Amino acid sequence: MTAMTKAPATPAALRVTGLSKSYGSHTVLRDITIDVRAGETLCLIGPSGSGKSTLLKCLNLLETPDSGEIWLGETCLTAARADVDAARARIGMVFQHFNLFPHLSVERNVTLALTSVKGMGREQARQSALRRLAEVGLAAFADRRPAQLSGGQQQRVAIARALAMEPEVMLFDEATSALDPELVKDVLAVMRDLASAGMTMAVVTHEMGFAREAADRVAFMCDGRLAEIDTPDRIFERADHARLRQFLSQVL
Ligand SMILES: Nc1ncnc2c1ncn2[C@@H]1O[C@H](COP(=O)(O)OP(=O)(O)OP(=O)(O)O)[C@@H](O)[C@H]1O
Ligand SMILES: [Mg+2]
Fold first, then answer.
1. Is the CB–ligand 1 distance for residue 52 below 6 Å?
2. Ligand nearest to the CA of 95
3. Which DSSP state fits 159?
4. d(CA 56, CA 65)
5. How far apart are CA 52 and CA 145, in angstroms?
6. Which of 21, 22, 23 to mutate to test the pocket of ligand 1 (most atoms within 8 A of CB)?
7. Distance from C-alpha of 93 to C-alpha of 111, rounded to nearest angstrom
8. Atom of ligand 1 nearest to the CA of 54
9. Do the beta carbons of residue 16 and residue 42 sit within 8 Å?
10. CB-based contact 49:204 (threshold 8 Å)
11. Ligand 1 close to Cβ of residue 49 (< 6 A)
């Protein structure tokens, strides 16, 4: 019989192989191999300190891995001569804290990188910002200052800001965990819309409901390792990894 490897249905947008990272003697990521397929929503779950944020930071080159490779499409981001700024512009990142500029209007927060990094003209950038703000339900808020918005609205501005750069991949690190509970759902709804629209996303989240409904696959990280990766059904209904079962019993 010929052994044939079945090709994945869709190509990998992001591919990580053998990624390791230590801080001093503390190993935080151990030999992680994982991919995010084009159009896929991959949720990353796991206990505090398991390395989820560090993995996302490595993907966005905010941290330098000690070993392993990261590929964004055909570009090797970890190659010695990689153009880090160009690679970063292709990856959108949304953090727990939105880091909007308080002295700038919502619109200017969204257009800043378009005009300064992409060199886009002011009017074209404005149109693009208004389109993105409309997508996150904030078209009417363009002229406000961030302080005049709720936390959930500010986070949606941060998402619009990332989307305006037209990234190939969006990374979310606990985008809702600093929000009051009643504000979480609007941000999750925006993320769900993005997922349905076919955006490629890697989402670190403690929102198990979101992971279950919106993820194509769920990855469970534990002690710096990728312990499980599977469909939400199998992760949540038929978890056979003892640490995963224990983790789920604490968070569900
Ligand atoms: N800059 C740093 N210097 C030293 N240690 C760090 C640094 N950043 C993270 N760590 C350590 O690396 C480990 C993994 O941290 P990381 O932030 O990736 O975990 P996490 O899975 O995102 O956790 P949480 O769910 O609490 O956000 C932790 O033990 C943390 O203390
Ligand atoms: Mg984290």
1. yes
2. 2
3. H
4. 11
5. 32
6. 23
7. 16
8. 18
9. no
10. no
11. yes
Question: Alpha-carbon distance 30 to 235, whole Å?
Answer: 21
pTM (two decimals): 0.94
Classify residue 68 by burial, with Cβ atoms within 10 Å: 0-12, 13-18, 19+. middle
User: pLDDT tens digit string along 159-176?
Assistant: 999 999 999 999 999 999
The C-alpha atoms of residue 247 and residue 90 are separated, in whole angstroms, by: 33
pLDDT digits (tens, 9 = 90+) for 117-173: 899 999 999 999 999 999 999 999 999 999 999 999 999 999 999 999 999 999 999
Domains in the chain with CATH codes: 38-251 (3.40.50.300)
Nearest-CA residue for ligand 1 atom 9 is 54
CA angle 32, 5, 55 (to 5 degrees): 15
Task: Tell me, in angstroms, the distance from the centre of ligand 2 to residue 48's CA.
Answer: 7
102's enclosing H/E stretch is: none
CA of 63 to the centre of ligand 1 (A): 12
What's the CA-to-centroid distance between 3 and ligand 2, angstroms? 40
Q: Which residues pair with 104 in a beta bridge?
A: none
